[in-house]
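ok posting inputs for the magnesium ion job
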Amino acid sequence: MQNIIKLHDKYFKVMIPAEQVDKAVSVVADRINRDYAERHTPVFVGVLNGSFMFLSDLLKKIDFNCELTFVKLASYSGTCSTGEVRSLIGLTTPIEGRHVVIVEDIVDTGESISHMIHELEKHHPATIEVCTLFFKPASYSKQLPVTYRAMEIGNEFIVGYGLDYNQLGRNLKDIYVVTDGK
Ligand code: IMP
Ligand code: MG
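and the output
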């Protein structure tokens, strides 16, 4: 295993090996299996791009009938004074009256996930829960419940297993953390 890698201008080292990530995914999948066993065909909504690898491994461990769809939050600068405007794109599966599990790569300030919940609620699902691979409790500023958290970390910047640094690093199977030295 290569220990130090370079992405753009920064160096990264392994923080969480793939085997440990896999164990955390299994634990969270078991919880979802227990909680959703009696519910009618839940829908997993993956938030692109970051969640693709987590979602792929998570769903292989889900043992009830379920559906899968992917969405994206498109950000653009609005002309209004509130600045950034975000809209939901790609929701092709009807979710009205359904049990929805949003799958994210990482919840940091909670800004993205709160937009996502708000947008999905407009479609009147029966329930919405959030499942995230990583949760940064130190920076999370929202009151929204994030029910399923595979792993919690500090404020460090990480890449790998779907997470990127300016689009690089998503393909890495281990989780890497930014490091100062070489
Ligand atoms: P939030 O809106 O502040 O919760 O940020 C969520 C988004 O920021 C995630 O979906 C990621 O795209 C990005 N992000 C936050 N922290 C990291 C990190 O440590 N590595 C890579 N992306 C991150
Ligand atoms: Mg993301």
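notes: The longest helix spans residues 18-36. The longest strand covers residues 67-77.
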